[in-house]
Amino acid sequence: MQHFKPQLSLFLLAAMFAVQAPARAEEAADHDPAHAHHTAKEHPWLGVYNGFLPCADCAGIKTQLGLNKNGSYILMTTFSGRSEREFVEKGKFTWDEKKRTVTLIPKNAGAPGNQYLIGNNFLTQLDSAGNLYTGKLAERYVLRRNEITEKEPAHAH
Question: Which InterPro entries does the record cross-reference, listed alphabetically (predicted)?
Fold first, then answer.
């Protein structure tokens, strides 16, 4: 019986990792009561947004932004045509109901926080002064919301 204990422990440890749910951005952020309890009903703009933003020295910036109900976010960017490396930024966000804007507050204090204007199923990135971009590329600073359903899709057999 003694020789089964190490194997049983190893098996139980492996089983715990196998059944653990995938990590989400919500789990990565520390709990902050000031930003907690955002609900989809209160803030229908919570969710995952994707886009291909303009870039001065590459083909474009593939961008994915997840805004979580606990006030955390995860921003993933890839500079297409320059590098296949994906940059990941995590932090908290604030929102201004009057201006209808979301401001990202990165955990890394040295990084600037992006601002976005909230639209109907899209976010428009604002410049560093909090203004809409102007010019011929202005319409490309948009991230579109992914529709995520709670139900699994039905499979045809």
Answer: Cu-R_lipoprotein_NlpE
- On whether the CB atoms of residues 123 and 116 are closer than 8 A, the answer is yes
CB 125 within 8 A of CB 104: no
Global confidence as pTM: 0.68
C-alpha pair distances (Å), 144 with each of 42, 63, 90, 115: 20, 10, 19, 15
Q: Convert the pLDDT of each residue in 88-144 to its tens digit.
A: 999 999 999 999 999 999 998 776 789 999 999 999 999 999 999 999 999 999 999
The secondary structure element, H or E, covering residue 6 is helix 4-19
Domain 28-145 is found in CATH 2.40.420.20: no
Pair of tokens at residue 155? 């499979």
Ordered by start, the domain boundaries in the chain are 28-145
Query: Do 144 and 50 form a contact (C-beta atoms < 8 A)?
Result: yes
